Each structure stands twice: as structure tokens, then as C-alpha cells.
Amino acid sequence: MTAALSAAVSFPVAASESLERQRALFVAALKTAETGDWSTVDNLTVADRALLENYELWPDLRAAYFRATIRQTDSRTIERFLERHGALKPARELRYRLAMEYVRRGDLDSYLDIYRSYYQGLGSAKLDCLAFQAEIANGRGARIIIRAKERWLVGQSQVDECDPVFEFLQQSNRLTQDDYRTRYALAIEAREFSLARWLGKSINEDAVAQARNWMAAQSNPESFLRSYASGSGSDMIRSQLAYAAERLTYRDPQLALELWNDAAARQDFTAEQSQSVLRHIALWTARDNLPGAHELLVQLPVEAQDAEVMRWRARVSLRETDWAQLLADIAAMPAKERSTEEWRYWRAVALGRSGQVNAAIGAFEALAKERSYYGFLAADEIDLDYAFEHDTLTADRSVIDAIAARPAMRRARELFFVGLDSRGRSEWDAALSVLSAEEKVQAALLADSWGWHSRAISTVASIGEYNDLSLRYPLPFKNAFEQYAGTASISPTWAYGIARSESLFMRDIRSSAGAIGLMQLMPATGRAVARDIKLRYAGLDTLTDPEKNIRLGTAYLGQMVQRFDGNPVLATAAYNAGPHRVDQWMPASGSVDARVWIENIPFNETRKYVRRVMAADAIFHWRLTGTTQRLSDTLAAVNAPAKDQRVASAAR
Predict the structure, then answer these.
(1) pLDDT of the residue at 233
(2) 118: which DSSP letter?
């Protein structure tokens, strides 16, 4: 391994004995305080109590107890706490709980005091409508008419707290027919057809019928297109037919095109409607790898030939190995798109395949200077070394000490060390926002010295510092990754690439889809894999335990590798999008170059994910071994599944 890479920045990070004691006391007390039990604190010795009260997170402990006992604790006690600690995040959360408690008690005047000081103007429908309720209850309903109507005039259903306010507007005759028509149109635009149908009842039967038509176009677009294509040609029907065609396209682009062409022969669609629908159909024909995609894309009007259309024109040509057409498609792209690494690489490939070898070599040489997926592939084409270009960031001890001493940074650090990572990240980001670019470099080194890799990685990325690979591609939990990757018969560097891409090594992170932990496992997947490998599964506690999450994640990766005949590209895609989707993306026959297959993954997120993971695998391999693993060697060809495999996949 290079000397530069092995010479990591080192700081003394060991906590003092008293600080370690404070952390232990806090963790123990928090468990009971969150249940409304303060006995753990009351039973401490005088010395330990003093240590805990002087700890950075003492306010967090008090806030946790007050949140749990808010119905029993005197409000004045909580208000005094908020006066002292109100700027801290746990106090802000407690203030919200207190506001909701005032609402529960019916003390709307106290709620209004908090609302006016802290929440008015934030745009929260719930908080606004509770304030409106308070004004109405106090006989001041006239004050809120304009603001309440603004809350009502949206295309989505609002929170339940707004229902009494809207009822007040209705009963006081503040909602006109024009208001109902306006909101009805907004609901249609937002595709909230059930809301539109409800609003239509206050307009007329025709509005209700139109909403039902929209619902029919949404739930059964094929039937709607067949039923209404030859009917009366109102503007509304044409809009509904266009919507139905777009809905049907997701399921069957070819059928959608057939029914759309039939409708277009009978209806006078606007140019905008026609362009939108045909663009949608053409793109999904390309994404679904259906015949005729390139022709449909090329035939689109010039106004519809945006960057996404141009990208898929090129991908279809690539899929068909039509190098001349690929060069033409890339040349037709906007300059900004054409200059991206993706199309620089494929232009060079096409040049080489077209016999323009010198031009191809020059393009590959330029691209091989990049430390990236395409940079590595370009280097592979002409057998150049990878441009890892590691450069250790220089630590400034005095700046680091000054940053570490800031109260906000001390709080963020302690939240991380006691396992409240999510809260710590929030406070770190807030503390970081006031630092200069140079200070952020030092803050990143500080976070790295603590082992807080997600903050180190994201901080240097935010200021464009990409060359310290020991910081950006750290090797935490090294023993676990090596042990469990070995058990699963997969590469530990590939597992590292997955974990970094999934979570930046955050043990507690939860995705919007519900995936949890370092390697972002869905609870059902974690439970199933735990059963397979005979690991005791305790739900969230298991998934947020780094070592257990790594064990489960590597085991699942191993299962995906087995399912897809040892192909890491397919297994990576399956880890992100699910194995059933990858089954759908497999070639019907023959073999496809993995690079081409990756480019034609229909989902932008999954395509980027696979490229990111495979490039990270190469970097982690270099980090772990000091040697280069050629990216091209890991991109195994994608072979059509055997007939019995296709049957098995369809049955799953």
C-alpha cells in the first residue's frame, strides 16, 4: 500500500475517565427517563449525580423525562426548562409536545401563545389549523377567514385538525361555488380524484361524473381508452384519454401506443397532449427493451427531444450495437449532456468499434484521468493505471481543537458517542453550517478521528474535497466485513461498496421505504435471512447493531449472487431494486455485455447505484490491499436465464 495512504491523520480521541462515566450514566438514565421513571437518577450517589448534571447532554435527559411525564408535570416547570434551554433541539421537541398537551387539555390560549411565538408562518397545516380552531373558539373567527381559505384551496386532503376549520368556513357561508370549482380543478391536477368527486357534490352532477371518469381512467386505463376513444370529443374527455394512455404505458407500452393511435384518429388532441403521450410511450418502449423504440424516439417532434429522450436514443443504439447510430445520437445531444463521463466513454467505445482507433485512444486517455466508474473503464480499454490520486488532507491541530471546543460540536459528538446518532447528525449539520470551507475540512478530519464516517464523508463532499481516500472510503468494522463476507463467499470490498452506497456507514439510518441500518435491510428481509443463517432476530435492535447488520447484509448479498449465477452486477442491481425486477430486465436470449446491460437499467436510481457500487468496489480493493482490481474484470456478462430458471422466477 502507498505510504501516503497508510499515513492516516491521527488524533488523541480517548475520552477521559470522567467523560466515559458521564456517558455511561446518561445511557442508563435515559432508558428509564424515556418511560417516565426518574429513579435511576434519584438513586445515584452524590458524586455521580453531580457528574451527570454537569454532562453536556443533561438537558436531553431532562427533556426526555418531561416528554414522558408531560401530563403529570406542572406546565410551569416545563416552561422554566424551555426558557433556559429553548434553543436546543430536545427543548424544541419538548415545546411541541407541550403545545399539543395544551390542545389536549383545551387550553387553546396557551397553545396560541406558543404558536404565535414559534410556529406561525412555518406552513404547518396541523399547527395552523389548531391555531384557527383556537381563534374560532374565542369568537375571533373573522380574523382567520383568508388564511383558512388558503389552507382549504389546495388539491390534496388536509390533516384532520383542519376539518373543524373547514366546517366553520362552510357553515358561515365563506366558501363560494367558485371556491369549490377552483379546489376541484386543483384536485384533478393533483390526481386526487376521490377528493374531486367529494368536492363535485357541492358543484353539480356533471362534476361528480367527470371525477368518476378520472377514477375510471386511473383504475382501468385500457377499458377507458376502448370505451371513450370514439365518444364525444370534449376537452375533458381528451385530457382523460391522454391520462389513461400514460397510465397504460407503465403496464404495456405497445398496447398503449395502439389504443392511443386509435384515439388520435378520432379525437382532436392538442399538440401538447400528443407530444406528451408519445414521448411517454416512446421512453417506456425503450426502457422496457421493446422493438421499435429508437424509431419512436426519433419520430418525436423536436420540442419533445429533451435530454432524457436523447439519452434513451443512445442507449437503444448501444443495446443494438449500432455504433454509427450511437455516434450520431451522442452528437445530437445538448453539449452539456454530451460532455458527461457516460457519453464521453461510449463515444470513445463507438469510435474504436468504428475503426477510428486514434480518436478513441485519445478520448480514453482523457477520461482515464478521472477516479470514477467511467474513468476506470476507460483505463481498462487502453491498459492504463487507475487515477486513484489519493492525497491526505492536512490537519491543523489548533483549528480542530477550536472546532471541537464549540458547544454545538461537543453536543453533536456526545450524541454520537452515546448512540443517538440521528440526533447527533442533525446537530452536526447545524454546527457545520456556520463554518468556513477550510474549517469544514478540519471538522471532517475531526469527525473521522471519532469514527463518525458519515459526517466526515458528507462534509468533504460538500466542499468539493474528494482526494483523501482514507477519509472518503474508510474501513470501519473491518473484521466483521472480512469474516462475514468470507462466510457468504463474496468479496469484502464489494460488501464495503454496498454499505457505503447504502448508508455511509450509519448504523441507525432508516430509508423512506423502511430499510434499516448499515446495509439497509428491510425488516422482512432481515428476518428471513436471520432464519436462514440461524441468527437470533430481535427486529430493530438486530438491524441497528452494526456487526449483525453486516452479517445479515453479506448473507443476503451471497444469496443474490447464488440466485444470479455468481454475477455481482445482477446481484448489486437486485440488492437495490429487488430480485424480481432484475428477473424482468434479463435478456430473453443470448448474452449482453454487462456495461451495456447496466446502461439500459430502466430505473435511474438503480443504474446509478450499480455504477457507484462497482466503482467503490475497485477503490475499496485498492484501500484494503494496495493493488488494483480491474473494474472490467468484475463486470461479468449478463446471460439469458435457462428456460427452467425463467419458469422458477415467474413462479416466485
Answers:
(1) 74
(2) I
Grouping H, G, I as helix, E, B as strand and the rest as coil, residue 174 is: coil
Residue 168 cell numbers, joined: 366553520
pLDDT in tens, 467-504: 999 999 999 999 999 999 999 999 999 999 999 999 99
CB distance 471 to 448 below 8 Å:
yes
CA–CA separation, 85 and 495 (whole Å): 43
Report yes or no: 131 and 111 within 8 Å, Cβ to Cβ. Answer: yes
Per the structure block, which three cell numbers stand in for 631? Answer: 473494474
pLDDT tens, 104-117? 999 999 999 999 99
DSSP 225-255: HHHHTTS---HHHHHHHHHHHHHHHHH-HHH
| Homologous superfamily of 397-466 | Lytic transglycosylase, superhelical linker domain (1.10.1240.20)
Q: Which amino acid is at 154?
A: V
* Sign of the alpha-carbon torsion through 316, 320, 321, 326: negative
What's the fold here for domain 478-651?
Lysozyme (1.10.530)
3-state secondary structure of 638: strand
Identify which of 376, 302, 294 has the alpha carbon closest to the alpha carbon of residue 595: 376
Does residue 544 sit in helix, strand or coil? coil
Cβ proximity of 594 and 636 under 8 Å: yes
Superfamily of domain 17-179: Bacterial muramidases (1.25.20.10)
Sign of CA dihedral 63, 67, 73, 79: positive
Q: Are 77 and 44 in contact (CB under 8 A)?
A: no
Query: What is the 3-state composition of the chain as percent helix, strand, coil, each rounded to the nearest 5?
Result: 70, 0, 30
- Residues 6 or more apart from 488 whose CB is under 8 A from it? 554, 555, 557, 558, 561
